[in-house]
């Protein structure tokens, strides 16, 4: 393939990915220009655009249930009167919010945003110039170096987990990765924010649940969760979720990230089995190569788990191959070296065999 | 109460503040302003009128119960849409988990005779001059409806909000409490699944 062809292939892929958004006018100006310039010279992508447009047309011609079912507005009236009845029933119970300190202030502020803004700025300056320095001096006197106490995150029930959606996962790094603070924005019955470090059972449970039930969550969220769990991959439950993700997640990036998260647990027998399975069955050559790399690393650990040399590792057939899992790994790599459809994977597994094999085989 | 008499003229912020202060009339005015859109979204997503009615009730009751927590960090409309889409997503997920609970209109798309009552009704209403084109249109509709069932609840909500509610991706992200990028991914996947389903018709 010539460099021009390669370049045009990459361009086609990029433009094809944008066409869905181009058709519904959700591209930036720069993207629009890129698409239009490319379409001028690429018949295939032009054809692709025609297909996207055809679909958009068919979709917009679909009759909408709302027009069909409630063209007359009868359903809307029914809904309104039902709601009014329910509110009548509830009115005594919910007439007043339970506890509303400074409720008058909130209402006043809601109606006067400009005044509220000014007031808050003045308040902020006062706190910043007076209170903070005072607190700082008190802190220095008696709280030298003490960790801040944070409230433990709540533990969600199975039902809440099953109905939960995840809007955001933020990790605030710390010196020790396991004590990084994880902030989760969830919505179960209502929006909920959960915060805690990775030792926190509630936080860990949500992250593990997302990784285990990948199909329900967006790939971006799954990636963030896998990434966060990397620091606690030694935990058995976490590890088994990561292993499942490495084998089954539909998105290549998530499988790669899950493999990476298992990097420090590769000496575990169960992880090694997963690696063997991935390198035999994963459809993506990049993932297979990563599995080969980790398998080499896995075989490069001695029985106590301490890593041997990174550059040259010898599996002694007299000892190593007696272990059935090492034997299977060896066989899998040999098969890969001969049969893998990707040339790069074949080369990498041959190199791996040389790397871990006895010297006389080299 | 002078304020109540002029409720229809109050802006959204003032109305919400009144409702937060406990004014039932202000709350009902808010409902009247937005409930047409809410029911429309619920009907388009749920298909069955009784399910849409449940979504309407549940969503507005949630708004009523939680209004005192609304902090004007986004527009009331965005907050309301977030609640409605969450209620719809919950219902769709529950429905997906219990196949026996699926909408008869959607299920009948699988029947051997193909064209559903739903689509038959469309034909009566929107009959075109060209019978061949009409039949083809019906087939595509069945295929689209069938493909829509294959979408995950979130993909379906994103697709509906984009194509039938005409919302921008950013607004959909706000409503779903997620990023524009995530919404883009869902829309891309949804469109790809639909295209796969419709491939043979082209």
Task: Give helix % range of chain B.
Answer: over 70%
Q: Count of helical segments of chain A?
A: 16
Provide the CATH architecture of the largest domain in chain B: Orthogonal Bundle
Distance between the termini of chain A: 33 Å
**Percent helix range of chain A:** 55-70%
Rounded mean pLDDT score of chain B = 77
Q: Characterize the main sheet of chain A.
A: 3 strands, antiparallel
Which residue ranges of chain A are poorly predicted, with pLDDT under 50 across at least 5 consecutive positions?
A: 142-151
Cα distance, first to last residue of chain B?
63 Å
- Largest sheet, spatial ordering of strands of chain A: 1-2-3
String of helices and strands of chain B: HHHHHHHHHHH
Q: What is the structural class of chain A?
A: mainly alpha
Radius of gyration of chain B: 20 Å
Category from helices, strands and their pairing of chain B: mainly alpha
Poorly predicted residue ranges of chain B: 1-5, 103-136
Element-by-element helix/strand order of chain A = HHHHHHHHEEEHHHHHHHH
Question: What would you call the quaternary organization?
Answer: heterodimer
**DSSP E strands of chain A, number:** 3
Which descriptor suits the 3D outline of chain A?
extended
The percentage of residues in β strands of chain A lies in 5-15%
Radius of gyration of chain A, Cα only, in angstroms? 29 Å
Explain what you see.
The complex is a heterodimer of chains A (362) and B (202). By secondary structure, chain A is mainly alpha-helical. Chain A folds into three domains: 56 residues, no CATH class; 117 residues, no CATH class; 97 residues, no CATH class. Chain A is 63% helix and 6% strand. Chain A has 16 helices and three strands. Chain A has a three-stranded antiparallel beta sheet, covered by helices on one side. Chain B is mainly α. In chain B, 73% of the residues lie in helices and 0% in strands. Chain B has eleven helices and no strands. Chain B is elongated and about 55 Å long. The N terminus of chain B is likely disordered. The chains are: A mainly alpha (362), B mainly alpha (202).
